[in-house]
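Hi all, posting the design record for the shared folder.

TITLE: backbone redesign
STEP: 1 of 1
STRUCTURE INPUT:
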């Protein structure tokens, strides 16, 4: 660019981040040209890179060898003694079409971010080797409720889909440690290897959408009349749902048709192991369709070993008439954390004979927090 109207004997400083994370390891070149002096320094995983153009006006270039692509901070200082007042910094190398001005993304430059720029990559995954190459350090922004794995390839040009790259041994299912995660490994012997962070929500500790059948679920009729039982299948009451959540085939319902009077029925989950969890929440989809007066429902947690109720029973508001499946979340009581537990859904009805489907549930999960 031209730096006009600056007069003589001044300097201009540009600094920011060069984003090489989407590029393959290899030999790149930084090109400098200016009137009068130009100095460029950048910290990479391979060390500090420096190139200097001490005088007007020819091009000076230097080899930038990158074995570990990353997000690299740089400083560029242009010095003007007198005259034309212009400076250029450019880059070339694998995946870059010719010699392109640094930051000219439209023409193929790697992205350049000014300091303070809000970047779209929320993780800012970085690979470095502060000890000079013996070990690799990985750091990234960390968020609650997520877990991380790191994958790698020694042939990123031949295999450009990170979804098929191999997991780095020992770097799978890494728990979040907000605000930053940091792990280290011994640097492998490969001359070229690219790394990528894979981030996602913590998979459920337990999940059942009931499409595989009853499994370990059990039902109880706590009343003598047995007008209502918990049934697995497609609901078909006078009102309420006509399928499982998301138009699936199966859900648990208080009768697949309308529920009956004077009922007290319980649905119990298989035993779920909560050992090793600091906290958790129960998630499920519910469809409530009852008379809204004396019909009631609740959720409770029991220790599997002795069936003692843990924490308080959580009522479900049966005065609500759902018009679709609704996602519901309930914190797992602290008394249940670390235990092997059952979860129960209990439904009770009054003496009236009502044309409603009652209570239906689907997609039950326990999510660690």
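Okay, here is what came back for every position:
SEQUENCE:
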């Amino acid at each position: 660019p031209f730096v006009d109207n600056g007069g003589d004997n001044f300097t201009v400083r540009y600094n920011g981040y060069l984003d090489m994370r989407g590029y393959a390891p290899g030999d790149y070149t930084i090109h400098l040209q200016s009137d009068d002096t130009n100095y460029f320094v950048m910290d990479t995983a391979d060390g500090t890179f420096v190139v200097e153009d001490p005088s007007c006006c020819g091009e000076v270039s230097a080899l930038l060898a990158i074995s570990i692509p990353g997000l690299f901070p740089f400083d560029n200082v242009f010095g003007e003694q007198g005259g034309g007042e212009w400076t250029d910094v450019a880059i070339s190398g694998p995946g870059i079409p010719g010699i392109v001005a640094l930051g000219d993304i439209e023409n193929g430059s790697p992205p350049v971010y000014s300091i303070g720029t809000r970047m779209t990559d929320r993780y800012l995954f970085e690979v470095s080797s502060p000890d000079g190459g013996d070990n690799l350090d990985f750091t990234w922004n960390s968020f609650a409720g997520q877990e991380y794995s790191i994958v790698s390839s020694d042939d990123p040009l031949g295999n450009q889909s990170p979804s098929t790259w191999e997991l780095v041994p020992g770097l799978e299912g890494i728990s979040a440690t907000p605000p930053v995660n940091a792990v280290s490994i011994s640097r492998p012997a490969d001359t070229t290897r690219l790394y990528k962070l894979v981030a996602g929500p913590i998979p459920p500790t337990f999940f059942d959408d009931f499409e595989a059948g009853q499994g370990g679920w059990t039902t109880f009729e706590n009343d003598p009349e047995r007008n209502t039982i918990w049934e697995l299948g497609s609901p078909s009451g006078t009102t309420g749902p006509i399928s499982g959540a998301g138009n699936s085939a199966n859900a648990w319902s208080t009768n697949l048709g309308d529920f009956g009077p004077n009922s007290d029925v319980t649905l119990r989950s298989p035993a779920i192991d909560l050992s090793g969890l600091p906290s958790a929440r129960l998630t499920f989809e519910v469809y409530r369709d009852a008379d809204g007066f004396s019909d009631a429902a609740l959720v409770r947690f029991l220790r599997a070993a002795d069936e003692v109720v843990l924490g308080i029973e959580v009522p479900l508001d049966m005065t609500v008439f759902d018009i679709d499946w609704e996602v519901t979340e309930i914190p797992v009581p602290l008394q249940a954390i670390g235990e092997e537990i059952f979860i129960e859904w209990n439904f009770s009805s009054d003496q009236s004979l009502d044309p409603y489907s009652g209570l239906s549930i689907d997609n039950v999960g326990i999510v660690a927090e």
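COMMENT: DSSP finds no helices and 28 strands in the chain.
Let me know if anyone wants the other runs.
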